[in-house]
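For practice. Supply one:
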Amino acid sequence: QAPIATWIWNFGDGDSLISNNNQNINHTYTSENSQEIILTIIDENGCTDQYMVPISLFTVVFALPNIVTN
């Protein structure tokens, strides 16, 4: 088993990231939607594998009660 050489992240919103040194990344979505995140990994021997995770994005709205203390 060879070490991972490249992580290719496809976020499903037209944005992707290729990283040769960081498997932990951040991504910000700009709209509500259902997406499928696809991570492709390539090891030092050129072997590849893929992981797919479906996600649903939505806005969370909550109201705080108006609490008055005297």
